[in-house]
Write a structure and sequence with these properties.
This protein is mainly α. 77% of the residues lie in helices and 0% in strands. The protein has one domain. The longest helix is centred in the last third of the chain and has 26 residues.
């Protein structure tokens, strides 16, 4: 059963991904997309299909959070950073493949690669912060002096 933290994490990840993608693709990379206008839909077409874009983000966010919870070890923010980076790394070969398929600038592909690595690393960090329990924050790990008996 999916608990409260899952749903809070899902909303947090979805909100972050939605805003991040809008900023990256709708603002920062707009000039790179303009270099290959025949490849992309018009703005009017995109607005008409916006519900599909939102649905894809909802589904991705749900699965992203579900996979994280199945392997969650309560190791803090670093766990989320590692998880998010590895998920982002899964997209690197796919983005390279798009260069072979679509007539797009290689700079756009490299921008996509950097974007997914940063985007999913941050999303994983957000999820880890939401999932972190108070014990994980307050418990320091024992030092080697504390675990060895005195001579």
């Amino acid at each position: 059963m999916l608990k409260g933290r899952f749903w809070i994490g899902f909303v947090g990840v979805f909100g972050f991904l939605f805003i991040f993608n809008w900023l990256v693709h709708g603002v920062f990379l707009k000039g790179l997309y303009a270099q290959s206008p025949n490849v992309w839909r018009t703005d009017a077409d995109m607005r008409g299909l916006f519900h599909w874009l939102a649905l894809s983000q909802i589904i991705f966010s749900f699965i992203f959070c579900l996979i994280f919870t199945k392997g969650y070890e309560n190791r803090g923010t670093a766990e989320g950073v590692r998880y998010g980076f590895l998920i982002g790394a899964l997209f690197v070969p796919m983005n390279l493949g798009w260069y072979a398929i679509l007539p797009i600038p290689i700079t756009l592909v490299f921008a996509w690669i950097m974007t997914v690595l940063v985007e999913y690393t941050l999303a994983g960090m957000i999820l880890a912060v939401i999932y972190k329990t108070p014990e994980a924050v307050a418990k320091p790990s024992p030092s080697s002096d504390e675990t060895q008996p005195l001579p």
